[in-house]
Design a protein that fits this description.
There is one protein chain. By secondary structure, the chain is of the alpha+beta class. The chain has 19 helices and 10 strands. The protein has a 5-stranded mixed beta sheet. The longest helix is centred in the last third of the chain and has 20 residues, at about 440-460. The model is unreliable at about 1-5, about 5-20, about 155-175 and about 180-205 (pLDDT under 50).
């Protein structure tokens, strides 16, 4: 939904096509209350105060008693002044008249004025916002508490239509995770041979769900919440906006919005260092195009290259590839005519995987994989790794599946490239797995398990995936 289009109070109809979606009648009650809120009335000091900080104006009255401040503000709703605290000299208090009483707030300045989370260019703006918030939350406390009980978000079916459309696109080229059962058979001596004894069981289908990336946002002009259809009140920081899809909602409503973010490609500023699920949803692909394009190029001309993935390409050229992907996306030229050294392409792939904000093997599953690698029994170890793989987000699972299938093919050219599963595990272990807390000692202690996890995923790729 376009943020700028929801300032209308007119109604509209529901279309079966999400592209033709129009918002419903926006609820105007809170907007009307904001219009009724008291306006700021600055009470100025009749004399020049030498102790006045340079960032305050004539509303600063120096060190006056609280009782005298009450007298100055009496009878004028929205009146305000600033005084220096008598109890704590050097600190300042905003005295504000609201609801026939004087409210006192500790006032701070760090380049902007604030009494809480919001920061303002001027004291006047701070007071304006405070009066709006106080008025609305006083007059409409019960209404606000109930405004999320009948949301428009799911009621109109807009998000479900988008979700069905996205799942349909992704399912056409995606292999669903399959759950396998590792059976003990005394006659089977090797895990490699044991594959014939593995049974497939159906795995519940899951879609590429993605949580919204909400950030506090200041809206210019009237805006309404796209979850509950109520006005977002205040002067600044009235609500939050998803930086990936542009959804605008109240902060309290953001906790109720489903994990159905559909990233807008226009909002994705780069390819490298972008969240994996965000990137594939924005491009309507099953895997990041960087992974597909680099692997295709490597398999075209680099499978026999000695030390593939172990030998580094020139860092300046790898950086050029990164910048090209960020600039040109899937139109990036990584052919031999652009980069003759295949190690540059291999290095770019490793850099992409290493720079993901959430690694391919996610932070929350890191310890599960490490513990699985420590299991002494080979069958139980593979079973534990397989169970952990099934818990990965779908986009992460599909990326890992595709990469492991590629690395398995790399090992088939070991005679030429000298890269077996163990060597590739050493290279890709720290790239695909990173501990949640970057602790040098933890990383050092886990290196053996990181290597083993990747090694086993390569060797048993056809079983684990």
């Amino acid at each position: 939904m376009a943020a700028s289009s929801n300032s209308s109070l007119s109604g509209s109809s529901v279309s079966s096509d999400p592209e033709d979606y129009q918002p419903p009648i926006w609820k105007s009650y809170l907007y009307q209350l904001q219009q009724e809120a008291p306006r700021p009335k600055r009470i100025t000091c009749p004399q020049e105060m030498e102790s006045r900080p340079k960032y305050y104006g004539r509303e600063f009255h120096g060190m006056i008693p609280r009782e005298y401040a009450d007298e100055l503000l009496a009878g004028a709703e929205g009146a305000y002044l600033i005084r220096e605290s008598q109890r704590q000299p050097g600190t300042h208090t905003l005295a504000l008249r609201f609801g026939h009483q004087t409210l006192n707030y500790r006032l701070f300045y760090d380049g902007k004025h604030f009494v809480g989370e919001k920061r303002f260019e001027s004291v006047h703006d701070l007071v304006t916002d405070a009066l709006i918030t106080l008025y609305i939350e006083t007059k409409a406390a019960e209404y606000i508490a109930k405004m999320t009980t009948n949301p428009i978000y799911e009621h109109l079916g807009y998000t479900s239509l988008l979700k069905d459309k996205m799942v349909h696109r992704l399912s056409r080229g995606r292999t669903e995770p399959r759950r396998v059962t590792f059976q003990r058979d005394e006659k089977i001596s090797s895990p490699l041979v044991r594959r014939s004894a593995l049974k497939d069981t159906p795995e519940k289908q899951c879609s590429y769900e993605k949580i919204h990336n909400f950030k506090v946002h200041t809206f210019r002009g009237p805006h309404w919440c796209e979850y509950c259809a109520n006005f977002m009140w205040g002067l600044i920081a009235q609500g939050v906006r998803c930086s990936d899809c542009g959804l605008n909602v109240h902060k309290q409503c953001s906790k109720l919005v489903p994990s159905d973010c559909q990233p807008d490609l226009r909002r994705i500023k780069k390819v490298f260092s972008c969240d994996l699920t965000t990137l594939v949803k924005a491009h309507n692909t099953t895997r990041p195009m960087v992974v597909d394009m680099c692997i295709q190029e490597i398999e075209l001309r680099g499978m026999k290259s000695e030390g593939l993935y172990r030998v580094s390409g020139f860092s300046e050229h790898i950086e050029d590839v990164r910048l090209a992907f960020d600039r040109d996306g899937e139109k990036t030229d990584i052919s031999a005519s652009a980069y003759a050294d295949i190690n540059i392409i291999a290095g770019a792939l490793k850099l992409y995987l290493r720079d993901l904000p959430i690694p391919v093997i996610t932070f929350d599953l890191y310890s599960k994989f490490i513990q699985a690698a420590k299991i002494p029994n080979a069958e139980s170890r593979l079973e534990a790794i397989h169970e952990s793989l099934l818990q990965l987000p779908p986009a992460h699972y599909e990326t890992l599946r595709y990469l492991m299938a590629h690395l398995k093919r790399v090992t088939m050219f070991e005679k030429d490239n000298l890269m077996n599963a163990e060597n590739l595990g050493i290279v890709f272990g720290p790239t695909l797995m990173q501990p949640p807390e970057m602790n040098a000692l933890t990383t050092l202690n886990d290196m053996r398990q990181q290597k083993l996890v990747v090694q086993l995923m390569i060797e048993h790729e056809d079983v684990l995936f």
